[in-house]
Amino acid sequence: MRSILVGLLALTLTSCVVHRLDVTPIDVTADEPIVVATPVKAHLYDGSTVVFQDGVTVADGVVRGAGRLYDLTLDNSSTVNEVALKDVAAMESYQTPVSTGATTAATAGSSVGILLGSLTAIMLLFGSCPTIYSFDAEGAALEAELFSYSITPSFQSRDIDRLDIQASDNGIFELELRNEMLETHYIDHLEVLEIVHAEDQQVFPDEKGRPLVVGELIVPSRAVDHAGVDILEGIRNVDDLAWSAGAARLAAVNADDYVDHLDFEFEIPPDAASLALVLRARNSLLNTVLFYDVMLKDQSFRAFDWMNRDLGHLGNQLELGLWYRKHMGMTISVWDKTRYRKVARIGDQGPIAWNEHAVRLPTNGSDTLRVRLSFVVDNWRLDRVAVATDAERAIMRPVPLEHARNTDGDLAEIPEYLLKADEKYLITKPQERVNLRFDVGDAPTGKRRTFFLASEGYYMEWMRADWLTEEHRTTFKPGKDALLRAIALYADQRAGFREQFEATRLAVR
Questions:
Q1: β-bridge mates for residue 380, sequence order
Q2: Model-level pTM?
Q3: Does any domain span residue 509?
Q4: Does 361 map to a domain?
């Protein structure tokens, strides 16, 4: 799910703080000025920032309130009572009570004002979640994107990602946590999970994040798309030449036909006792359009109310969650001689990093296995699809974070904050980064190790300038109409959208 708006953003001007969040309803009507009763921070195109501690009223193209204007460096300030809406690059709503009294710094020298001042002419598009990088002789390598669909505090959840990194000779490896988005990230828990296995085995997380050790990988003997077109060449190897739906398929979508399926056949060895489907995949940008354009931009200022009040009710949370689960993600089915029978579902993973999963499959005693993957049209990119033999569960060893630092020096308190999910958050702002060091020790003799990264938290999207209009908007309602609108908008801009998306990633400091 692509990210979400600026709800209650507990954030100081220049540091990351541990907060306990409270929800305050915002009243927005069609006939009255838009009233935001909670504190609002407006980031202007000239690089300055205005903090409206008591909220704002928006009418006639002007944002009014008792504000404090900070310059580009955030060192000097003056009082201000209004700013023109056309001068606002992005807005965030936040609350300032700090329950725990614990404060941490990310990149203390970074400035959101400097960021926006340097991006005046650029579309502020890129959005997702915390990204994780490792480093080798060739530079930074993207490892994972964390809790991609934890879009508000109420949707905070645990995420498991497989890492490619290996420990150095002294049992140490480092990762870098980045905020490359116009978002605020709230990281509650972070740890590495170690799985020890034989040299000829590989390990992948299953659909619930549990480690699955597998043996030989078998490529499909046949693979066809929704229309019966051969897609085998694109999904045989890990090469980033991913499958995607054709433009004609997107153009043919309607209310009765918006789900794709891909069919695969595998020749299974007669002695295979256990099987697993191995996928290397990531989401397309359909989810980005669904959340940016349909959930946020279509609601404009009403999105504040939707996030901070409506989704605060359990019934609304369940309605959105069940609707999303029913329509999005990927269903895995196996042919059982008469029909395809569902055996598992994988939730959406995010559009940035490739994800690898293994899902246990039933054995039917046949030498041919037929598997079907079903999902909303073009919601996935598939790089490799294979079946593995000798699938079995494995034991994970948790490895806590040992040390954290940024360009300003050590962050001694961060390992304690991230030790467990306890509402003590490491909060990062756009362009901030934190280097993380883990001591995994030496590998057992004659064994290999694979590492997963476990994380928990959520993130809040900043509302871009072109999303903020005074036009009355209706509250988002989950349903087929919203999904079809997202597909139509996505189809219109798919060509070149990935390149545009990647080009607006923010450089970290």
A1: 283
A2: 0.82
A3: no
A4: yes
